[in-house]
Amino acid sequence: MAITLPHGVLFRGAAEGRIRKDLIDKHQIESVIGFPDKLFLNTGIPVCV
């Protein structure tokens, strides 16, 4: 499974930070790949998969 998200999700705290920590603690994330901006049509921000 892959999820495409903006880079900001990797650094925000509060609820997103707790969710991210839980996913890491439960070994649910195998890797994170960062892509540059404008990779996807009509998307001007960098994303991660």
From TrEMBL:
Its EC number is 2.1.1.72. It catalyses: a 2'-deoxyadenosine in DNA + S-adenosyl-L-methionine = an N(6)-methyl-2'-deoxyadenosine in DNA + S-adenosyl-L-homocysteine + H(+). Keywords: Methyltransferase, Restriction system, S-adenosyl-L-methionine, Transferase. It is an enzyme of class 2 (transferase). The keyword Kinase does not apply. One of its GO terms (molecular function) is site-specific DNA-methyltransferase (adenine-specific) activity. Gene3D superfamilies: Vaccinia Virus protein VP39. Residues 2-49 form the DNA methylase adenine-specific domain. GO terms for biological process: DNA restriction-modification system; methylation. It holds the Pfam family N6_Mtase. InterPro entries: DNA_Adenine_Mtase, DNA_methylase_A-5, SAM-dependent_MTases_sf. Transmembrane segments: none annotated. This is site-specific DNA-methyltransferase (adenine-specific). It comes from Streptococcus thermophilus.
